[in-house]
Design a protein that fits this description.
Blueprint: H1 2-14, H2 17-21, E1 25-33, E2 38-41, E3 44-48, E4 51-56, E5 61-66, E6 73-77, E7 79-81, H3 83-88, H4 92-101, E8 105-107, E9 111-115
Parallel strand pairs: 1-9
Antiparallel strand pairs: 1-4, 2-3, 2-5, 5-6, 7-8
Length: about 120
């Protein structure tokens, strides 16, 4: 029993709240006008719009929308500190662990909509 208590105390000392609770995945929804564009996340095809997918949210991601007959449109979705972990994370060493592990971060956008422009045909 003493060994179990020591292990639990050690885990609490080396872990932050977000490190324990945050799985670092965010559900993102991608839509486009017109529908049916292929969504590439970090250069990997991930499906066609409309699309809901869980993505790793520790670092910014790049998104590209592609559809035949339309201009490709890309953008970067950045990350920021998820303030709820700053407020409810005690003690201070938990902040340090969470910042190092990246668990404090979340993607800035969860719904991404793109209007695709048709490729102009030369006359």
């Amino acid at each position: 029993m003493k060994k179990l208590i020591c292990i639990l105390v050690l885990v609490m000392l080396i872990s932050g709240c977000a490190t324990i609770c945050n799985k670092n995945l965010s559900m993102l929804t991608f839509t486009s006008e017109p529908e049916g564009a292929t969504v590439y996340i970090n250069d990997m095809p991930s499906g066609k719009t409309p699309l809901e997918i869980e993505v790793y949210d520790k670092k910014p991601i790049t998104v590209m929308f592609k559809k035949n007959g339309y201009e490709n449109i890309g953008r970067t979705i950045g990350t920021s500190l998820d303030k709820k972990w700053l407020i409810f994370n005690f003690p201070i060493y938990g902040w340090i662990v969470d910042l190092i592990s990246g668990k404090f971060y979340t993607l800035n956008e969860k719904l991404i909509h793109i209007s695709l422009e048709p490729i102009e045909q030369g006359g």
